[in-house]
Write a structure and sequence with these properties.
691 residues, alpha+beta, Glutaredoxin, 19 strands
Length: 691
């Protein structure tokens, strides 16, 4: 235990960590270790099993289990006596989370957080589950009883425990999808994937499946691509129904912008109130793409409000982006976000309060524990008619009300925030800002993206060898970067180039891709591991092919390689990417809900992507007009280079720029396919016709 003196009765080793989640447990009576050799060596030396607890700071049930069990002196005594106890932040260590979640799902048929796994001293799991109550409750065994039973089995039935651990270890080391069949990489595969997804679509409320309902932005992106490629109206209807229902529901923060994690019901009304950086990054992009595709102003508003929320509440002074905001404040889930009619009337007055409440579905009985989650159940013209006012008058009341309620809410106790900065999640967010910057003409977004990129490449990259690292908090950088860190950042830098016209960002993206291939590529079976060749040895070397809340690292990597192959004329990038697509062709067709991002990459591969080059001084209004003409359109299968003719360094390194010059001294755009170009144009209207 730590000898550091504090005002707390207990202080353990986690006090020296940077993860807010681990620090939350630093004053438990449990003798917690962080994952590392010290804990593993103790387990071996004392022949004690490991109790591994994995969670994250915004996890409601993680906090519940801490209060009920990890702060319980009697339970802590059982834990300390019989186990080496290790606490892990799943956001810092996705490798450990992936390995042991697979094991728990194999043992129990389900998974979640907090995750509780019991390991042999070599790290092999032999028993596990998720949340355990402190005592027997609702058919679940109490945690104390579980601890005693596991300790007894380890001491007295070691042969059975060792056998179980061995079987799970072999399962974890088995080649994933080794027996998956192969499908031809044809448009028919994409069509089959769409039809399979459509079977799970909720035509009334949008989204996929029933309650709980998750936003699934990668699958929405695939629907939009399907509409663009085939002109199928059903795909666009599915996309728009989902986006509109989510934007009007309680899962969207109607006052402050940004999305909560998921909806506990089918209708997007009652959310789980935590806010995750990655959700907001991915959703801001899909709303942006929907705006580009349809021109619907609602989608632009939601995209901008979401990005503005990230800038306001999730951006560090040194330009990185924080990870999460909790669901709870003052010990109550959702307290920060809900309202009573009396609060609203007191802030807005009776007339505006009545109109605001009618628009946002506020009632005396409430829709969440006696209070109200704001949502938009009716169209504004219907509300205006029912309330006997003009639509313009209703809009005035709603906009004024949002401003006043936001200011009042700022005076409340805010939910806790996990202020660690993760490279991969920052890459996803940087990409959203970079793409929105040019598409929406938001120079503030461009500046946000450029500052974040500079921060990541200087602070989270080792100067001696260029190795990306995973996490940063308050000046401390640690943990080797994973596949998703490399791929997400490379993707973002390609988009940042388009927003800034600086070729250095493309060069940085290519360098990351080369490092990604060197560190993570599996020479024997193809595809990428999640951990690098220089990573610590674990019970298995994880790799995840399926999208979860974020795109799988393999899917991100394939997409990046395909685009860099066109940008740099590099066939090796394409060869590796196509090998992955071929390997995963059957799973993509049969389980498309887990491969939304990879299906988008396949769509790119099967298309003849447009190669668009705009050449001109970066600050010239004529250059900006040509770039904006490209950026405002929904063209998912394109590569786009914005070359600053006033700073031509780097032109020679890119074959797409060969022969691309100003036309009679004027900025020009070139639209090509397979490196064969139409005549250059100098006017946005001419470029529009070519696009």
């Amino acid at each position: 235990m730590s000898e550091q003196k504090t005002n707390h009765e207990h202080t353990n080793r986690l006090i020296h960590e940077t993860s807010p989640y681990l620090l939350q447990h630093a004053h438990n009576p449990v003798d917690w270790y962080a994952w590392g050799e010290e804990a593993l060596a103790k387990s071996r030396a004392e022949d004690k099993p490991i109790l591994l607890s994995i969670g994250y700071s915004a996890c409601h049930w993680c906090h519940v289990m801490e209060r009920e069990s990890f702060e319980n002196e009697a339970i802590a005594t059982l834990m300390n006596k019989n186990f080496v106890c290790i606490k892990v932040d799943r956001e810092e260590r996705p490798d450990l989370d992936s390995i042991y979640m697979t094991a728990v799902q194999s043992m129990t048929g389900n998974g979640g957080w907090p995750m509780t796994v019991f390991l042999m001293p070599d790290g092999s799991p032999f028993y596990g589950g998720t949340y355990y109550p402190p005592t027997d409750r609702m058919g679940m065994p109490g945690f104390g009883r579980v601890l005693m039973a596991v300790a007894d089995a380890y001491r007295n039935r070691r042969k059975d425990v060792t056998s179980s651990a061995g079987q799970l270890r072999e399962m974890l080391r088995a080649e994933p999808l080794a027996r998956a069949g192969r499908e031809a990489l044809t448009p028919a595969l994409l069509e089959q994937a769409f039809h399979t997804q459509a079977q799970n679509f909720d035509p009334e409320h949008g989204g996929f499946g029933s309650a709980p309902k998750f936003p699934q932005p990668m699958n929405l992106e695939f629907l939009l691509r399907t509409w663009r490629r085939l002109g199928w109206s059903q795909a666009l209807v599915m996309t728009e129904r989902t986006l509109e229902k989510m934007a009007r529901g309680g899962m969207y923060d109607q006052v402050g912008g940004g999305f909560h994690r998921y909806s506990t019901d089918r209708i997007w009304l009652v959310p789980h109130f935590e806010k995750m950086l990655y959700d907001n990054a991915l959703l801001a992009r899909v709303y942006l793409h929907a705006y580009q595709a349809t021109g619907n102003a609602l989608y632009r508003r939601i995209s901008e409000e979401t990005l503005d929320y990230v800038r306001r509440e999730m951006t560090a002074p040194d330009s990185g982006f924080y990870s999460t905001q909790d669901a709870d404040s003052e010990g109550e889930e959702g307290k920060f976000f809900v309202w009573t009619p009396e609060e609203i009337t007191g802030l807005l007055g009776s007339e505006d309060g009545r109109l605001f409440s009618a628009y946002y579905g506020v009632t005396p009985e409430g829709n969440f524990e006696g209070k109200n989650i704001l949502h938009v159940p009716k169209d504004e013209d219907v509300v205006a008619y029912l309330e006997g006012v003009s639509v313009e008058r209703l809009r005035q009341a709603v906009e004024r009300g949002r401003r006043i309620l936001f200011a009042a809410r700022e005076e409340r106790v805010h939910p806790g925030r996990d202020n660690k900065i993760l490279t991969g999640w920052n890459g996803l967010t940087l990409a959203a800002f970079a793409e929105a910057a040019l598409a929406l003409g938001r120079d503030d977004y461009r500046q946000t993206a450029a500052r974040a990129a500079s921060f990541l490449l200087t602070t989270l990259r080792r100067p001696e060898d260029g190795r990306l690292l995973r996490t940063y908090k308050e000046g401390r950088v640690k943990l080797l970067g994973y596949l998703e860190d490399y791929a997400a950042l490379a993707d973002a830098l390609i988009l940042l180039h388009q927003a800034t016209a600086e070729l250095r960002w493309l060069a940085e993206a290519r360098a990351l891709a080369d490092a990604m291939l060197a560190l993570f590529w599996d020479e024997e079976n193809g595809g990428f591991y999640d951990t690098g060749k220089d990573h610590e040895e674990l019970v298995a070397r994880p790799r995840d092919f399926f999208d979860n809340a974020t795109p799988a690292g393999n899917s991100l990597a394939v997409d990046v390689l395909l685009r860099l192959a066109v940008l740099y004329g590099e066939p090796e990038y394409r060869r590796r990417a196509v090998a992955m697509l071929e390997r995963l062709s059957a799973p993509m067709a049969n389980y498309p809900g887990g491969f939304g991002h990879l299906l988008g990459a396949l769509d790119f591969h099967l298309s003849r992507p447009k190669e668009i080059v705009v050449v001109g001084p970066a600050s010239d209004p004529a250059t900006l007009a040509l770039r904006a003409e490209v950026a405002r359109r929904y063209i998912p299968n394109k590569v786009f280079i914005a070359a600053d003719s006033s700073a031509p360094d780097g032109f020679a390194q890119n074959p797409l720029l060969e022969g691309k010059t100003l036309v009679k001294g004027r900025p020009a755009a070139y639209v090509c396919q397979n490196y064969e170009c139409q005549l250059p144009v100098t006017e946005p209207e001419e470029l529009a016709r070519q696009l």
